[in-house]
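Researcher: I'm preparing a figure for a lab meeting and need a structural model of a single chain. I don't have an experimental structure, so a prediction will have to do for now. The sequence is pasted below. Please return the structure as C-alpha cells so I can convert it later.
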Amino acid sequence: MVKEEKTRTYVLVTNDWNNGLSEEEILKKYIISKSSLQTYLSKARKQGMQVNKRKRKKRVEKKVPKYVIVASEWNNGVNEEEIIKKYNITKATLHKYLNKASKKGIEIKEQEEKQAKLDPIYIQISRDWNNGLTKEKIIEKYKISESLLFSHLNYAKKRGIELTRRKREKPKKKILQYEIIVQEWNNGLSKERIIEKYNIKEGSFYNYLSRARKSGIKVKENKEEKIKPSKEGEKPEEKKSKKKIPSYILISQDWNDGISEEKILKKYNVNKKTLQTYLSKAKKNGIEIKEKKSKYILVTEDWNNGLSEEEILKKYSICKSTLASYLSKARKKGILVTKREKFEGNKAQENVINESRTNKIQVEEPNHNREEIKELLKTFLPRQVAKRLKISTKTVFDVMDSLNSEERKEVNKAFIRNRPYIFSRVKKLKKDGKSVLEALKSIESNIPLHFLAQLQEVYYNLGLYSYIEKSINKRLYLDETISGKEKEYLKGLKDDMHLEVISRQIRKMRKEDLEKGKVISYDRLSREYNVRTSFLVDLLGREEKDY
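Model: Understood. Here is the structure written out cell by cell.
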C-alpha cells in the first residue's frame, strides 16, 4: 500500500509538472520541499516517463566581495575617513581589505590626500589656500589660530610657493545706537516714543542727533530742539560751548612753570610714563618744553654752593646715604664735587666703626641677655634664634660679632655636636684619614632626607655656602624616587638656607663698606639681593630716620 501511494505521488507530481504547473504551486499542493520535487521528477525519468524541460531561471549575480568594493572606492579617490564611516569598519580592517585586493591582483592606487599628509604643514595649508578653501575652514581643519595661518603662508612665499591673491573682506560696520535712533527719527517716530523704546534720557536723544549731523548723516529738523533749554534760567542762544584744554597742554604748562614732577603726577593722577608721553606730544605740537636737571645734579650744585647737609636733606626729603650716592654719581659723571673738611656722614660712620671695635655690643632687648642668645646659637641658626626669642636678627648677629675667638670655637663645636648624625659619621671618617669636606661629601651621597637639614646647617657653620644649594638641588632634581611632599620640603629648606646665607653675606659686605667709608643705600641692597627693605631693617637695624 505504501509503495502504491508513493508511485501515485511522483506520477501526479510529474503530470502536473508536464501540464505547466509552476514549481511554487506544486510545492504548496503536495506540501513538499524543492529537494523532494526534484527526487520525484528524477524517479519519473528512471521509470521511463517523459519530464518536460523548463528554462532555468537566471542565477542571481554573486555578491561582490567587500574587499573589492572597498578597493574600488579607494581607487576612485574616496577619503579614508569616509570609507571607514560608510562601511562601518576600522582603519586596520580597511588596510587589510586593500592588502587582500592587491594579493588578488587588483591594483591599489596611492591617494593624493595620503601623500599630501606627509608634506610639511605650510605646504598643505598653501595647497588648500590655492584650492579656494576659506580662511575659516583652514583654521578649523588644522586647528590653528589666524595669526599662525598667515605665518605659514608667509613662510610658503619665502620658500617660492605662489599663492593666489584674495580680496580682503571688509569687516561689516557695526550700526551704532545713535545711527539707529536717527533712522527712527527720520522715519517719523516721535521723540517720546524713541526715548521710551530705547530707554534713554532726553539730553541723550539730542546728543545723538547732534552726533549724527557731525558724522554727515541727514537729520530731520526738530522744532523742539531749537527751543530746548540747557540750564535753568539760561537761554539756549546765550550758551557758549567751552572746549576742554587737552591734558598734555596743561601738563606741559605746569612743567614749564617749574612745578615738580611728583606734584604733577599727583595733580593729574598719571604715572611717569604717561607724563613723558604728554610732554613728547606737546613737543610734536610745537610747544617748547624746558629741560629739567636731574635730582643728583641739583643736589650737587647746592652742595658746591655751600648749602649745609641738614638743609639739603630737608630740601630734597632724602637721607644721608642717598645724599652720598647722589654725590658719588655726580663724580662718576665728571661733575666736580667740592671736598669738605668735615663730612658729618663719614664722621658718624667712623663713630659706629669705633664703637663696634672697642665696645661689646649691647643687646637691645632687656628680656634676653647675651648669654641666653649665645647658648641658643649652639643649637640653632641666627634667624631661627631670632624667631624663637622674637627679637631682630641684627641683635643675634651683634652678639655673634661680639664673641671672642675662644667663645666662637666653643659655639661652633657645640653646634656640630648637636647634629649627632653628622658628627658621629664625620668623626669616624676622619679616623680613616679623610678631611672634613671629604667626609661631608661622602655622607651627602647616601644621607636620608630627614637628616639633610643637619648637613646644610653644618655646611653653613663651616662657611661652605656653595655646597648648600648644590646638595639640595641634587636631591630635588636628580632623585626620581622622592614624592611631591618631599619636593615641597626641599624647596622650603632651600629658601630658608638661602636667607641664612645672604643674611651673613649682607652683614659682612656692610661691615667692609663702613670700614672703607662707603655708603650704600638700603634701596640698592634690596635690589642687589632681591629682598625687602623690612628684611634689611631686621638684619642691619634702622640706621636712617627715613627707614
